[in-house]
């Protein structure tokens, strides 16, 4: 996410004409014909845990407090000169990597008796490429592809009874997967009253993002001489990241110095049940999911030509229906999302021939209380039979954009 997405709680993301449009709504690229280069950093601090719902005293445990960082690069360009017709066409790409590029293929999947949170997974590496063009007065169309990697590793080895290995053969590969994204933008004034009317300031957008998942499969075949010829160990289709089909509709009205926006998202999480059924780490959990609707409301206010304030709020419903999942013990809850940010544009920066924009944003996410039953077959220290979710997330983001 760019700072503008963090600040507005993604309420204005479907209307963004920056390079991040290739992820939210590629049609919005056609709203601004200027090219741009953006570098962004996102830092998230999650303090997630639970409270004992059954004990006599108030006891709690923290499950996740490790920060997450992501580096994002975006590029947008006017490619109209590539066509002999001169018809406007705009291209953009966006690249993101976890831990500032140091963990591009990292993943983790586990069972646990202590509980783990569902929706705060990682997307260690992704690439989005897309294009947009006007198709009729006031109506733009865009399409893009989100590219992620599925990993596979094969290991053959001879294992001694002492635990040492020899004659190892290791093969690892990464296969790209593709997620389609399409969108439409419409300015009602340009479409229905090109001579000018109140609808000039009314804009709507619709977008569809196809589902994507990031998987890892590991096949290990150790051979113990004079004891076991082959001992196949297979960990298949481990889901490390998943995004459902998302249908988005947005409306924005420009009052001059103030802009209001509303976006509604229908997220098809119920399809994730079949995906987890093939996950050898978590297939025993019999997880159940439901489709959700996420409302987002945002506001932009121009202090002057150079400074703009953005804020937004969203309510994100949890897609997890199961209140108990054997050995996996997933936890999740509805959450309130509040964001705010400041954008500063320097029209004549030193040494640069084009405007420079600096964006800073902060987002706060508060988890709602929800009760879960801990279900484990593993031995260990006593743990609560029932817990209540508890936690918050703080997100900081900053970017520098050069327009040309």
UniProtKB/TrEMBL annotation:
SUPFAM superfamilies: Porins
Top-rank taxon, per record: Bacteria
Subcellular location: Cell outer membrane
A cellular-component GO term for this protein: cell outer membrane
Chief subcellular location: membrane
Keywords: Cell outer membrane, Membrane, Signal, Transmembrane, Transmembrane beta strand
Gene3D superfamilies: Outer membrane protein transport protein (OMPP1/FadL/TodX)
Family annotation (InterPro entries): OMPP1/FadL/TodX
Membrane-topology annotation of the record: Multi-pass membrane protein
Gene Ontology molecular-function annotations: long-chain fatty acid transporting porin activity
Annotated Pfam families: Toluene_X (PF03349)
Family note: Belongs to the OmpP1/FadL family.
Matches recorded under PANTHER family: OUTER MEMBRANE PROTEIN NMB0088-RELATED
Protein name: Aromatic hydrocarbon degradation protein
Species the sequence originates in: Alloalcanivorax marinus
